[in-house]
Amino acid sequence: MCPLGCTDIGLAVLAMYFRLYEDWNGGWDLGKWLCLIVNIFDGMLCMASMCNLYTLVLERYLDVCRPFLHMKIRNWTIAVILTLCWLAPIALWSAMLLSAWHVIGIEDLVGCVTESACPLLLNITASMVVTTGTFWIFSVLMILPMVLKSFTIWLAYMNSIVNPFLYYIFNQQVKMAFKNSVRSKGERHEDLNTI
What we know:
85% of the residues lie in helices and 0% in strands. The chain contains seven helices and no strands.
């Protein structure tokens, strides 16, 4: 919980404050370098927040659904995962924005838009890298166990529905036993009616 809170507080202080300043002033007048730094913190802290949130969700899932596996997780494993939740976004966003890789192919748009503003613009490749790394992979990992569980349950239900018909159609012994069972019940009813 603490790392998630730290990322959210960091986002409020290091990014939202400057975005609010930009909106209130009707533009950006704090220079290009501060804009770059704010954009790095904005992207980095949003990504770190999402990674920490996914880690928290995974930890809760293991605690509730797989308690024996959860008990085996060591403190150093948690420390490594939380460190990666911070280092990966720092490395990605710093490298991407400092190298200007995120604006390759959209330089004209960036030049036009950033004269009096500080938007965080990403080309398609950078957008795909960021959304895949922070949203799609984790979403699939969280949704997949639920889908597999539901699929497995319904597969078992379908098996239970189809099995009696398959046994009756393909197994002569089951067919004879079923017919004998129906006949003997019919004979018992006739016997009861005659009494």
